[in-house]
Structures are given as structure tokens and as C-alpha cells.
Amino acid sequence: MRSALLSFAASCVMALSVGLGLGCASATGGGQQKVGVDEGEDGLAAESITAPVAVGATLKTTATVNLRSGPSTSKTIVDVVDKGATVTALDAAPSAGFYHVKFGSESGWMYGAYLTVVSGGGGGGTVTTWSCTGSYGTKQPADGNYDLTAFGCWVDAGGVAHGDSGDNCLPGCFAQAKSAGLCSSSGTGKACEEKVTWYVADAGRFGCLQRVKITNPSNGRAVVAVVLDYGPACWVEAKVSKAALDASGRVNRYLFGADQGVTDRANVHVEPVSSDTALGPVH
Question: For the chain, what is the mean pLDDT?
Fold first, then answer.
């Protein structure tokens, strides 16, 4: 339920404009009108978000929080949204810690310290031809075809850990993976990737924690992996003018026998599957 911001006294409006977490008396009655928490008090909730989210992702408030007209505490408060309410992400990347969201018929900006991801969204629909105009792709190719590439930290069938010198092994969906119990709440991003092993990126297209079935049509091998990160970057896909799917070395080696790069043109077919589908090879 929203808390209306109408008919405030001038002093209360001034307090709201700077985000003070104080109760203000309504101009029409003697009760206390809720206002949002002060933005900037980071770390109040372990599940708070700081990384990009998928466009269309459902986010939930972890406190009564201000919805502002822009990504700053100096911007006007559009509304005050109760703890436990859900909003929809309109843009992937935050600005100064604020996320662009839609709440009911209203749109505005909320501070990520008071938001958590409920569901990852699914990007911005599909396209029949390759398109990637931002940091990374947000639209799935309609034919489901991608070029597979390798990244991240993973553990092979013999228990041997492998790394990637070009990757920081800090998955963009780490907070969601911890919240869902997929990874340890006290572990590192590297430990998370090594535990999961069967994972991919492309959260901008599929949403964090979406499970996908990846098939190599040339040999019929298929594997199910979970989305743990964002990317690859649009400039990488621009080399081949096709959507690419970053995947762990374990996925690459199961499907192709070796790590793949975008110029290897390792074609795979990708389709979302239900969240309870087991990770690993499909037999």
C-alpha cells in the first residue's frame, strides 16, 4: 500500500525533500504520516543490491523507502513505498546507488540498500536480428542461437579448480545467489562460482538465477546452467554480430571439449527452463 504525500504542512514537505526518516503530522489530521528511510545508510539489509539487474526484474523493498523523481536525495519524493512492496526495474544499471523502477502507475528512483531481487526478469523481449546497444545485450535472439564463450572460476569433474585471468570471479548475481541459498552467505564470489560450476552470464537477457538448457546442435550434447553474471560486453558480440553466451569452462568443455572464444563461432541453442531443473549434463 502506498502512503500518500498530499496535504503536508510546508515543514513536512521540506523534511521529505531531503529524505529525513521522521514522522510528519498530516495537515488534515493529528496522525503521523510515514516517510522513507534516509538514503545512503548502506548495509542495513544483507540482501541489498548494488549490481545491475535485468530490465523487467521484480524488486522488493526491505524498508519503507522513498520513490524519487531522480537518482539523488536532492530530487523530489514522488511517493513513499511500504516495506515488502514490489517494484519493476526499468533500467539495468543503477545511478549513484539508485535504481530506476516502476511502482503501480508511477516511475521513479529507489536506493538499492533497501531493495532485493524477487525474480530476475527476462530482459526486454526478443529480436530477429542481433542487437546490443548498451553495456550488454538485453534482448534474446528469437531463434535462440548464441556463440558460446568461456569465463569465470569453476571446478572440473576431478575436483580441480580452474580460474580465468581475465575475470574477477565476482558474479553480478552474487547477492541473489546468496539470498536463494545457491551460494554461501559468508563466501566469496570465487567460491560461489566454484560451487555452482554449471553457470552462464547474460543476466541482462535472461535475468539473475534463470536456468537455461544449452545444446550443441553439432553433437547433440546438452547441459543446464544457471545465470550468475552479466555480459558479455556489446563490443565482444560486435565482433561477430551475434549474441554470445558466456559460460563456465565446465560448460564449454562438456559441450565442445575445450574453452571457446567468440571468434570460434561455437554455435549453441539456448532455452529457459524451470527453476527446479537440475544443473549439469542432460542425458
Answer: 83
